[in-house]
Amino acid sequence: MEAARKTGASFPEGLSELREEARRGLSLPQGEPVVASGHQPLPVHPGILLRQLFLAALPQDVARVWISVDSDAPGAISFPVPLRRRGYTHHELVLLRNPNRLVLAARPAPGQKALARAWELMEARLSTLKNQGILRRAEEAWKRLPPPEGPWPGWWEEAKGRLAGLAGVRVIQVSELAASQAFKDFVSLLLCKKEGFLSAYGKAVRLCGLPSLSPGELPFWRLEGGKRGPARAPGEAQLPRALTLTFFLRAVVCDFFLHGAGGAGYEPGVDLLFREVFGMEPPPWGWLSGTFLLPEPSGERRLPGRAYPFFLHDLLEVREALSGPLSAL
């Protein structure tokens, strides 16, 4: 964690002040390193959960922050459930449908009726497996879910923390970040350099293989009725897109950002933004994935794949499999 304690980055005037303002506004410590990671608030497999376990295992003098990307807008909140017919297959169990593509922050937690129906479907499928320990774990997890109240992201993050035994990690929603004065000031700072910033952003998305902006668009989302649309004016820049989210996090919120394997492909583009927009060497970042550290299936003892949500796996077995990277702390 020395990279987090001494980033080696020299932030220019204005951005350095913005970092101090952001930490005050978000109640983050000024004198301690801040390490952040994140993911969409969705049922995830244990390889993704590793990053949150990693944060929880960091020393107490490091501020640990999990960014819950509630600005995403998937068509449904679902997860695969294994079942056995002649061989193993899976069924995609849908907890919440989202045909209008509302951002997750605008979706409520599922009601008790929806949770009860989801359990019926899950029980029927898990009952086909020879390893009934999977069914028992799922039933125990379902009984430990918190009351379904409030928006989906807050409810799910509380449920995940309860089920996975996470502690000591501050959860911050992207919607909370986007409402902060620090984010608004960051947007203003970038748009003061509009032509140079948009030129650099175009290079960055090409480097990362992300879609280019259409003429007149800004690299932010506007939000109307819970739905995202491209921002075209500074006053419409209400939510960050993928690159502008991690650009904001690394420039303003944290000293070290930890990606998963998928998001790691964004960061060469963000590094380019630091160099071309602020004329500075970027602060450090890293990536960590535990997917291929998980044990292979062994007969009927384990799940026949790694993509199933963490609460179907034996978490003691998962923690043992992931103990190598965690013990390095």
Short description, anyone?
The mean pLDDT is 90. This protein has two domains: 2-26 and 180-287, no CATH class; 76-172 and 295-324, no CATH class. The chain has helices spanning 2-5, 15-25, 46-56, 112-126, 133-143, 152-164, 174-178, 181-192, 194-208, 242-253, 267-277, 315-321, 323-327, and strands at 34-39, 63-68, 76-84, 88-97, 170-173, 220-224, 227-230, 239-240, 256-259, 285-287.
The major β-sheet equals: 5 strands, parallel
Cα-atom Rg, whole angstroms? 21 Å
Terminus-to-terminus distance: 8 Å
Q: State the helical fraction.
A: 40-55%
* Count of runs of 4 or more consecutive helical residues: 13
Description:
- The protein is α/β, with parallel strands linked by helices and 329 residues long.
- The protein folds into two domains: 133 residues, no CATH class; 127 residues, no CATH class.
- 40% of the residues lie in helices and 16% in strands.
- The chain contains 13 helices and ten strands.
- Strands 5-2-1-9-10 form a five-stranded parallel sheet, with helices on both faces. It has a three-stranded antiparallel sheet with strand order 7-6-8. The protein has a two-stranded antiparallel ribbon with strand order 3-4.
- Helix 2 runs antiparallel to helix 8, helix 9 runs antiparallel to helix 11 and helix 10 packs across helix 11.
- The model has no long low-confidence stretch (mean pLDDT 90).
